[in-house]
Amino acid sequence: MSSSSTTSSAAPAAGQPRPSTDRRGILFIISAPSGTGKTTLCKQLSANLPGLWHSISYTTRKPRSGEMHGREYYFIEEAPFREMIVRNEFVEWAQVYGHLYGTPWKSLTEKIDQGIDVLLEIDVQGAMQVKKQFEDSVPIFILPPSMTVLRSRLQTRASDSPEEIHRRLHEVREEVWSYREYAYVVRNLDLGQSLRDLESIFRSERLKTQRLNIKWLENNFIFDDDLQTGDRKDLPNR
Ligand code: ADP
Ligand code: 5GP
Q: Is residue 2 in some structural domain?
């Protein structure tokens, strides 16, 4: 991973994810066709799972009713977005459904360095770019139950015009074919079940042997002060 960020040592504010010292943060990537329910799932996941931070992207799309600058997205104009591209401030960026979206480097690498897991909710093109740069990231694809249900969810959400809904549905076939690029596939039929499935993935990934920080293990169990003064003589020769 090419991370050039500095690590912040500030304590987390109340309600913020707690850093982990025994491993680096994990990068979870979630993609799904528009209307599948990924925003709903991601919001609940980051509320339910301590130590998980939902990254905030930049976009040139206009805010929907109820969306807030700095909460769902940083809503900016195209010119400053393009300046950020030139300054290399995005891990990845893409044009999706006619608007620009980008994931900022700074906050993402700070969290990972602090041992906080990061949740990225991005489209398939962005996920492929991030996978290349962070080989140990965990890409997860969410599928809707069917095209009929997907259409009905987009209509019920009532946040996009009929033309925009048509444009989003048009992209589904191609997006769905990308499922093979993802480590996990979750079908979002029942919200509670999908949340349990996703939580199982997150918990299992956190327990993977390869993610444990060897320095933390050595400091706690090998170079232990008590062992140095007392029991070390009883240790077998290594
Ligand atoms: P996305 O972020 O993938 O575009 P949203 O999270 O905005 O999708 O969800 C689209 C609509 O579907 C919302 O109205 C949401 O409340 C609804 N929804 C999400 N998941 C489910 C589910 N499992 N069952 C029924 N409705 C759902
Ligand atoms: P929406 O406009 O519905 O919020 O999002 C449209 C699409 O853009 C979704 O597929 C969403 O995952 C994707 N998206 C959101 N943020 C980013 C980002 O930073 N990068 C990329 N590549 N896609 C993003």
A: no
Q: Model's pTM, two decimal places?
A: 0.87
DSSP lists the bridge partners of residue 196 as none
Tell me, letter by letter, the H, E, C secondary structure of 119-147.
Answer: EEECCHHHHHHHHHHCCCCEEEEEECCCH
**Neighbouring C-beta atoms of residue 67, cutoff 10 Å:** 13
Query: CA 115 → CA 17, 23, 51, 107, 165, distances in Å?
Result: 10, 6, 8, 13, 38
Domain CATH for 192: 3.40.50.300
Q: Is position 7 within any domain?
A: no
Q: Which residues line ligand 2 (CB under 6 A)?
A: 34, 57, 61, 92, 94, 96-97, 101-103, 121-123, 125-126
Sequence letter at residue 218? E
CA of 184 to the centre of ligand 2 (A): 19
pLDDT tens track for 155-182: 998 888 999 999 999 999 889 999 999 9
Does residue 4 lie within any of the structural domains? Answer: no
